[in-house]
Amino acid sequence: MTDSTESPDLQRRSGLRRLKEGTYGGFFAACAAITLLTTVAIFATLLSDAVVFFAEVPIIEFLTSTNWSPNPAGGGQSFGIVPLLIGTIVVTVTAAFIALPTGTLTAIYLSEYASPNARSILKPLLEILAGIPTVVYGYFALVYITPVLKATLFPEMSTFNALSASIMVGIMTIPMVSSISEDAMSAVPDELRQAGYGLGATKFEVSTGIVVPASISGIASSYILAVSRAIGETMIVVVAMGAQARMPAVGETLFGIPYFNPADVLLDSGMTITVAMVQIAGGDLTGGTIPYDSMFALGLALFVVTLVMNVFSDIIAERYREEY
Amino acid sequence: MSNTSSDTTEDESLITTEVETGSANWSPALGETAVAARDLNVFYGDEQAIDDVSIEIPEKRVTALIGPSGCGKSTFLRCINRMNDMIDVCRVEGDVEFGGKNVYDADVDPVALRRKIGMVFQKPNPFPKSIRDNVAYGLKIQGYDGDVDARVEESLKGAALWDEVKDQLDSSGLDLSGGQQQRLCIARAIAPDPEVILMDEPTSALDPVAASKIEDLIDDLAEEYTVIIVTHNMQQAARISDRTAVFLTGGQLVEYDDTAKIFEDPEEQRVEDYITGKFG
Amino acid sequence: MATDNANADGFGEVSRVRGILFEYLSLGASVAGLVALGVLLVYVAIDAFDLASASPGWLLTYFLTLVIPFLAFCLYSADDSAVTRRVLVVLAGGLVAVAVIFTAIEAFVVTIPRLSWQLTYLFVVVAPATAYLAYVGSHGRVGAVGFGLLGRLVGGTAIGLAVGTLFLVFDELVWFLAYTLGVLPAAALYAYGRRRDAGRAVTAAIPVGLVGLVAAVFLRGVVRTYPSDLIIYLWTLAVPIAAVGALVVDARGSRTAAVAAGGVPLALAIAGGFLAGNVGLPGPTTLIVIALTGVPTAIYVHRVVDVGDGTVGLGLPLLLAAGVIVGALVVEAWGVPAPDPWLDVSYVTEAPSRNATEAGLYPAIVGSVIIIALVAVLSFVLGVGTSVFLEEYMPETGVLGSLTRLLQINIANLAAIPSVVYGLLGLGLFANLLGFGYGTAVTASLTLSLLILPITIISAQEAIRSVPDDLRRGSDAMGATRWQTTKNVVLPEALPGILTGTILALGRAIGETAPLIMIGAATTVFSAPSSLFSRFSAMPMQIYAWAGFPQAEFRYGVVAAGVITLLIILIGMNGTAILLRNRAERGS
């Protein structure tokens, strides 16, 4: 040993160095704590104002009333979520009709058919679809899609309508379906495919008969995430769908089950939960009024629905994941 | 040896006792004990990796730990500088003494401990920094105040790498060949002037020529440092070590003696079987 | 298989028709969304630049003066006869094909609004061919040099403009004092300490800097006289940038080159700064832009000339500039009818207006830049802090392991919460409860930071996880504390990945609109914000506001120009992120 002090000093560091080390650790912990606090803050913010709202408007009325008019000209406010739910559901379902099949087929193509080269080009390009600002999609729907649809397929369509908005929401959510589904399909081991080919199956039969069923939990969880994204989508519908909370004409079928004609809603302007929130925010932000509080009630509904769907999708992906 | 006794004054009594009550294999001619384990048991969860090992490792000698894979020799090595702390499920019982101090005492800072004990890994792992910064790393984190460049040069010479890299100290350590990278890691380990150098199969990822350079280097290192090397190459252990400890399955230390004794006339039949290749 | 019994003389054949149909169906699905988006982008570009009214002569002029030279440059750089042949075939064949098909559709099926076959050719054939050639060309040395220089010019200008914009809200006098009293002494101490190996000087740098900063804030109210803005920018930004440039060049050897690399851009910047006022440009911003563009350019030119390979590529910016000028002269001389683009210089420098032709995006652009700058700082610090905590400090098992998992699940859930709900959080917490005000830049930045935080964290975690464990163990075994290992080994390795993820997340933040509406951001403001607490607008807010205007000039002109501006900024950010990632991947 060249050093003169050989007796090892292994004591825990005290003083400045210890403090420095602790400070950094504490800082990182504080950063992580902020993520937890965000969730708590969101929940607390929504709940505190929602509670005030439900003190004024009974929850039953909120859930069953078919009239949404928070700021009527002549007075007589009404806070019924039903028309908003109908608008949200119509947009979400229509968007799902576009995004789910397209996204699934895209995932199959990427995972089973595409050459590595094509995949390396297509995957980042598809991500662009999710990266375009939603207000831009809304503008596209309003200014380009609606006139084209009006000129060709639906002459009776109004300037603001649910269909154009839904198409754009659908296109935007394609990559959400395709990327998660493709991950699940790529995780299917090649032995399973080999087994299929060994039995004389064609590539089509292997893709649809073996790979898709084997990755069904991943596909399902991607569907739920995409639908939850569509439910929360705001700007596309705000710009392209207008802001009229309309209740479609409800008919009764056999056994008294109510129904409405989707075309009534699709081709006309309407309102989703998110649009209702934006509309109120555009006018009144001072707080303390019932419309102000109603935003938080709607936000709470949205928050709970998306959270439940997200957790549900996690559970599906976890529980039904095939262990290879 | 004479210069060391003065430095361990505060623990002198303890060390003296150890020397006297040491195992039967202990030969006083080897000098002071650098590292000692007493009744060491290590568990990974429920699995026992080290089974009641006691050993005294002399300073400024090369001590080889050999044995079949999974015998606990690497685990033992990592107990000495408490690298096992990084593994959540690892539990250590018993004492490991370094300079007469149990490193598992509550007041011991593993970070301070590792600054006294260098380590070289199986796979060369130079940092993605310049050669100079790699060697100076230990000095930097310890807040070394002296002439860094001189220490870098001294360490690279000590690792027999200086002549090959002296003109490219600012190029990346990753640009070197595997053998050079491993010598760079050795230079990095000796730069802060540790007392002990732990080597975990340092040549197993290298080609034979590079490996033999490292072996020569280990010989030189033992003049200044206590070297503890894990290897599963028995020829290597025989070539370079002064003392050899044989671990067999289950984490038991079966025999520990002068290398010549172990390889020529082992006490235990199991050790002889292992060394002659009957199993392992 | 003509015989009845196929098995008698062969194995028969299994029909693949279904499979082939399915393959093409899935291929079609994969590109359907992209094609739809492509068509929409083409139309919005046509509207923004008024290309519908561009005469064929105008298109041809710029095709010949700008596009053809650029393609020739890329071909020269690629130096591959196969590529040349392929591109020429595509360009020529595409011309014929597009003209024929387009005319046929117009004649027999339906008229296509606002498109001519020439425009279609440009978008469908020339644009992809150019992109492909630029990609191929950039792999040649000449092309790499050309694009490298171009990138420094554009990047320097963008950063310079952004810095100039930030000083609209940040007090430059505080910065002047802080730089003079804190930053400069600290940097000098640090540099001295490193050069002389005096550890004490290095350690002293941080406290000295802090004292300086505190003193600056204190003195701001006391000191009465200050130098002019131009002098402040010169002293605090241009001179240090030039000095750093000179040092970089000096480190590579030549002293005279170093003086030139620092001095020439500095002289140009000073000249530009003092003369800008005469042509109606803001002097300080001009100074910063020239300094930030000139110094990196000078360093790059010196390096290229020093290496002596592909120097021809340095001519690319000149080639393009010459193309624009010649094109403009030809259009002017021959009176070729030119389009009148909505997106022009006045659009990005003027305030919004009820009158479509005078409407501009300037205050919204400034608002967006300020918000994004704050969001970048906040989300980077919080994102890196959280990911380091989760990856380096927390165990994966035991009681703390469950806490890690809880944090992880929470972050995943935060990422799935609709942005409009974050808007409510901002409204309830930052605007009302904490009193940061409705629609202020501070409220917006905090809200958007929390919104993109989960994305930043997740990508930063991936980057940190990709650092090999070998390196951590190596550092730990040297006796490094956890923080030392993190700072010296993990973060330097993970930084490119972290930056990439952060920039991509910022791209998300810059386009977010719903949260801004919820916190009460103004749809339209007529002057740029002057402080962090003044009401501001942002690009997407302005687009949202204009999209509601019924006039066609707004719908098909002003908004289109806004959309293109926003998308260009987005592409610039994402392109930077991808370049960063590629460079990091090549480096390791």
Automatic annotation (TrEMBL), chain A:
On the tree of life, the source organism's domain of life is Archaea
Q: Which InterPro entries match?
A: MetI-like, MetI-like_sf, Phosphate_PstC
Which PROSITE patterns has this protein been placed in?
ABC_TM1 (PS50928)
Query: Where does it live in the cell?
Result: Cell membrane; Membrane
UniProt entry keywords in alphabetical sequence:
Cell membrane, Membrane, Phosphate transport, Transmembrane, Transmembrane helix, Transport
Give GO BP annotations, semicolon-separated: phosphate ion transport
**Function summary:** Part of the binding-protein-dependent transport system for phosphate; probably responsible for the translocation of the substrate across the membrane.
This one is known as Phosphate transport system permease protein
Which organism is this entry from?
Halorubrum cibi
From TrEMBL, chain B:
Which Gene3D superfamilies does the record cross-reference, listed alphabetically? P-loop containing nucleotide triphosphate hydrolases (3.40.50.300)
Q: A single GO CC term, please?
A: membrane
Q: Which domain of life is it from?
A: Archaea
Q: Identify the InterPro entries for this entry.
A: AAA+_ATPase, ABC_transporter-like_ATP-bd, ABC_transporter-like_CS, P-loop_NTPase, PstB-like
UniProt KW keywords:
ATP-binding, Cell membrane, Membrane, Nucleotide-binding, Transport
An example Gene Ontology biological process: phosphate ion transmembrane transport
Against Pfam families, the record matches this protein to:
ABC_tran
What is the protein named? Phosphate ABC transporter ATP-binding protein, PhoT family
- Which organism does this record belong to? Halorubrum cibi
UniProtKB/TrEMBL annotation, chain C:
Q: Which residues form the ABC transmembrane type-1 domain?
A: 365-577
Q: What's a BP term from Gene Ontology annotated to this protein?
A: phosphate ion transmembrane transport
- On whether Lipid metabolism is a keyword of this UniProt record, the answer is no
Q: Which UniProt keywords apply?
A: Cell membrane, Membrane, Transmembrane, Transmembrane helix, Transport
Q: Which Gene3D superfamilies match?
A: MetI-like
Record has Nuclease as a keyword: no
Looking at the UniProt entry, the stretches that span the membrane are: 24-46, 58-76, 88-112, 118-137, 149-170, 176-193, 200-219, 231-249, 256-275, 281-301, 313-336, 361-390, 411-430, 436-458, 516-536, 556-580
Q: Which domain of life is it from?
A: Archaea
Its membrane topology is listed as: Multi-pass membrane protein
- GO cellular component terms given for this protein: plasma membrane
Gene Ontology molecular function terms on file: phosphate transmembrane transporter activity
**Location(s) in or outside the cell:** Cell membrane
Pfam families cross-referenced by the UniProt entry: BPD_transp_1 (PF00528)
Name the InterPro entries for this protein.
Answer: MetI-like, MetI-like_sf, Phosphate_PstA
The family assignment reads: Belongs to the binding-protein-dependent transport system permease family. CysTW subfamily.
Q: Which PANTHER family match?
A: PHOSPHATE TRANSPORT SYSTEM PERMEASE PROTEIN PSTA, PHOSPHATE TRANSPORT SYSTEM PERMEASE PROTEIN PSTA-RELATED
Instruction: Report the NCBIfam families cross-referenced here.
Output: 3a0107s02c
How is this protein named in the record?
Phosphate transport system permease protein PstA
